[in-house]
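Researcher: Go.
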Amino acid sequence: MKSVADLQNIIRDKISESNVLEYKERFVLNTEDMPSSKNKKRMMELAEVDKKEFAKDLSAMANSNGGTIIYGIAERKNEQGRKVPIELKPIKINEMDKERLARLIMALITPKIDFEITYIPDDKEDGGYFVVDIAKSDTAHQNIVDKCYYNRKDTISTKMEDYEIRDVMNRGKDPKVDLKFCVIRTKVYPNDFNFDNKENKSEERKKLDEEGGYTYRLTYRLVNEGKVLARYVNYFIYIPNTIIEKGSHFVEEGLVVISGNNKTDSSLFVEAKKNPHGEVFEPLLPGMKSKEESLSLELYGEEIDEQLYIEYEVHADNSNYKRKRILLSSLECINTEGVNWKDLENNPEIQKAFK
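Model: Structure:
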């Protein structure tokens, strides 16, 4: 969420609060305690009860699955009892700023949580909105005000039991491995040479040779984002079979399944020499990336359809896994250019090489 329009869309679509989303109308509840000085921005401090609630909400999300808290949106319960946004309520400039908000978050929660603040100014109002994104943590975070630990269950922040705190603290013992994707788009020029190509090309490929266009490759690699090495890693990528080159891939409910792991057959590994199959899992150390893999997609337009997506899951040792979905249009796109054959048509050496 980067603009007022994005926030208005949330209200229009009546996106209800959940375990990963919460709306707050304002920061300070006890307005009678606010100083009347002109220098409110520096003098105003959250009341003790407000500090407790403020830290509880943020730490609860970090202790659970992470999430987003938006300050500056009023909500109410709908007929189903769910809280839905109803109106934008911009936070006045003299009530809060991004720097002060960050200081409060770091001062009221221990250990410090991983968060990002996006400030969205409202040009029609004397203020704006704060979107705080909180990452899921690898350890448990305590509210400094009341010395308690909280997690998020549905839309409510509740005190954690001892076993729940222990479970969260054990997260750091499991590796945190993910797949990182990128799209490479190549501009292809018409092919003026008569190559002796026996490959059976699709109609789209023939048109590409004759008229030019674009080709796409999906690249991906494993990344260990945690603090613990991953010994055994397997991944599965699910791609719509309509946008991938046909082959001997396994198909599941209209999705082609691409699988891989961190095996190696390198003779440099002592373990591999001992293994009769010459295979061994190569540990993925914290911060390490695997070699990049790629595959061609059956896409030829200048833009990627915004509805196209891929899904994937990563299994690393004993860590929990989750099947994730990503829109292809949201991935980083690197633009490249193929050979412009017209620049080569007068070069007999190149023509000879390609015949």
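Model: Residues 11 and 120 are 16 Å apart (CA to CA).
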